[in-house]
Amino acid sequence: MRRRHGRGPDLPVELSGLLSEWPQAGAGWERHDARVRDIYTTWVARPLLSRRRMGRARQTAGWAAEGTLDEHMTRYNSSGTSIAGSVLPWG
After folding, report:
1. Is pLDDT at 73 greater than 90 in this prediction?
2. Burial bucket for residue 78 (CB in 10 Å: 0-12, 13-18, 19+)
3. What's the CA gap between 12 and 5, in Å, rounded?
4. pTM reported for the whole predicted model
5. Sign of CA dihedral 6, 89, 76, 80
6. Interval 23-61: pLDDT, tens
7. Structural domain spans, the chain
8. What phi, psi does 40 have (nearest 5°)?
C-alpha cells in the first residue's frame, strides 16, 4: 500500500496504479472530498484476494473518471449492502 501524506488509510497499490494510469480517474478522485476517498480506499483494500481488490479498484477508478463516486457509494448491491455500509461502523 502507498502512504498518503499521513492522513487517512493507505491507498492500495491496485487503486494507486489505476489512478495514475487513467488521468481522468486521477482527476475525478481528487475532486471528491477526503471522506469519500477514505471510504473507497478502505473498501478497495478490504478483500484478502488480490483479484477482488483489483476488481474493486477498477470499479472505483471508473466511477472516479465519471465523477460518480458519491452516487455509487450509497447504492445497494445484490446482497443488500452498500459500499458505505460495508465500511462505516454503523453500516
Report:
1. no
2. exposed
3. 14
4. 0.82
5. positive
6. 999 999 999 999 999 999 999 999 999 999 999 999 999
7. 13-72
8. -65, -35
